[in-house]
Design a protein that fits this description.
The chain has 262 residues and is mainly α. Helices cover 73% and strands 0% of the residues. The longest helix has 18 residues. The N and C termini lie far apart (39 Å).
């Protein structure tokens, strides 16, 4: 229903050919560096207290993937995440969080087929986890399976019509697939539902940049950074906006800030 309303006469089931690439599943409000480090410390202690706890192992694995989202030493943190998630799965084959962690780890290093397998399994085990479903959708889009991803987003929107996540990822998926106009239309719903959700603004920022509306893009990016100060892609895009506006020193400051948190 959602896609039919958006597409009208457009054929969104035939996306342009894409090349698989590393895909970091993005949360609407990413955790800060400090939150990730705190989570790792906490779950390490939990595992030390009870090594047989599948939940503790899986949560530690998921925290490791958060740390791997930052580029330095990504391979090391991905390996740690896979090890912890594998231990969790051995302890409890039905642990959905372990599959989510393994899927995220695989996606971060471009193993999209393996990521999709893990995310599908996690969605089957934990169908109420909307975040895992949209992670699966993002991987599917990145690997060229746009039809399946858009169907998945539609189901999430139907299940959670008053939250922004499904709409935001539908908009992102349409943009990545090469349909910017439909992406902007889909993005209006998450912005209306949750104006402060940073990912809900991304397709609109992208559209502003394509149309040369740099001041509008700057205001959106600054609002996103108020919600998520460590959003490195936001800082990079803001640096680009400043550069295009002729503010070289301000652009360099934004780029430095991005490097500091990435």
């Amino acid at each position: 229903v959602v896609l039919a309303a958006l597409a009208m006469s457009h054929d969104i089931r035939r996306p342009p050919a894409r090349t698989a690439r590393p895909c970091a599943p993005q949360r609407l409000t990413p955790p800060t560096w400090e939150e990730i480090e705190t989570a790792i410390t906490y779950y390490k202690r939990a595992v030390a207290i009870d090594p047989s706890s599948a939940d503790a192992q899986a949560s530690l694995a998921l925290a490791y993937t958060g740390r791997a989202s930052y580029l330095p030493d990504r391979g090391r943190w991905v390996a740690l995440a896979v090890e912890a998630a594998t231990r969790a799965q051995h302890l409890d084959p039905g642990n959905a969080t372990a599959g989510k962690a393994r899927g995220t780890a695989h996606a971060l290093v471009g193993r999209l087929r393996s990521a999709a397998v893990e995310f599908r399994r996690a969605v089957h085990l934990g169908p109420d986890d909307a975040e895992t479903a949209v992670f699966l959708g993002r991987v599917l889009v990145s690997s060229g399976h746009v039809t399946e991803a858009l169907d998945l987003y539609e189901r999430q929107i139907a299940a959670y019509p008053r939250t922004s996540m499904g709409y935001a990822y539908l908009a992102d998926g349409l943009s990545v697939a090469g349909y910017p106009a439909l992406s902007v239309e889909a993005a209006r719903a998450p912005v209306a539902l949750e104006p402060d959700a940073s990912d809900a603004q991304r397709p609109l920022v992208r559209d502003d940049l394509l149309r040369g509306r740099y001041e509008s893009a700057r205001l959106r990016l600054e609002r996103m950074l108020e919600v998520s100060p460590d959003c490195a892609p936001c800082l990079v895009q803001l640096g680009l906006v400043e550069q295009l506006g002729g503010h070289r020193e301000r652009a360099e400051a934004r780029y430095r800030a991005a490097r500091a948190v990435w």
